[in-house]
Amino acid sequence: MLELRGATLVLRTPDAVREREALLAIHRTPAVSAWWGVPHPEFPDDDDPRVTSFTILRDGTIVGYLQFWEELEPDCRYAGIDLFVAPDHHRQGIGTEAIALAIEHLVGERGHHRITIDPAVDNRPAIRCYEAAGFRRVGVLEAQWRDTFTGEWRDALLMEQVVRASSAGPHGGSS
Fold first, then answer.
1. CA 155 to chain centre
2. Which residue from 7, 87, 89, 143 could staple onto 63, CB 3.0 to 4.6 Å apart?
3. What is the pLDDT of residue 93?
4. What is the pTM of this model?
5. Which helix (H) or strand (E) holds 53?
6. Cis peptide bond upstream of 49, omega within 30
7. DSSP assignment of 73-135, as one string?
């Protein structure tokens, strides 16, 4: 079981048997489902080997979920992050700290130098959180995701964080 520890949070691989209902309850709140849609029937279990999932805990309480995926092609390595936090824990720095823990792991342990995230263009609270975590706006991904409630294609804001100190690869130089 993978576990990342921060100042106030712990990110650990979900225990789907014990944590499934709590994570589903958060996922189904209107503030989360507006952006994440209807939970997959197997959530939080994901048999996609490209996705690594974490339960976000604060003081032993489940307060959210974070996942990342990785592009492992040596000349194009980067990782993408997605997360949600329970609405009653918004604006407490949880998202920012969880992202920092994930980035520390992705850069320090997994060898990435570029991390992306792509919130909906109209999800202003998430965008503020990601900017506070050091992400910068790159551009708009038009019609990037389908809203499961309306069926409409929606735009996302591509954001990235490039960690220059770790960007020297096996061929030297930096990106």
1. 18
2. 89
3. 93
4. 0.89
5. strand 51-58
6. no
7. -TTS-EEEEEEEE-GGGTTSSHHHHHHHHHHHHHHHTT--SEEEE--BTT-HHHHHHHHHTT-
